[in-house]
Amino acid sequence: MSNRVAISGNNTVSSVKDAVLCFFPTRLRHLLARLPDRIWRDVEEIRVRMYQPLILNLGWDECYLTYQGRLTTEINEGYKVETDDLSRIIQLITNSSLYAVEEELRNGFITLPGGHRVGLSGRAVVENGKVRTLKYISGLNFRISKEIQGAADTIIPYVVDRRGCCYHTLIVSPPKCGKTTVLRDLIRQLSYGIPSRNLRGQTVGLVDERSEIAGAYKGVPQHDVGPRTDVLDACPKAEGMMMLLRALSPQVMATDEIGRTEDVAALEEVLNAGVKILATAHASSIDELKQRPVLKRLMDLKLFERYILLCSTPRPGTLKQVIDGVTLRPLGG
Amino acid sequence: MIKLIGCLCILAAGGLFGASKAAGYAHRPQELRSLQAALSLLETEIIYGATPLPEALHQVAQRVNPIIATLFVTAGDDLRSQDGTSVYEAWQRALYQLQDKSHLRSSDISVLANLGSVLGASDRNDQAKHLKLAIERLGVQAAEAEEQARKNVKLWQYLGFFAGAAVVLLLI
Question: By residue range, what is the domain housing residue A111?
Answer without folding.
Answer: 6-143
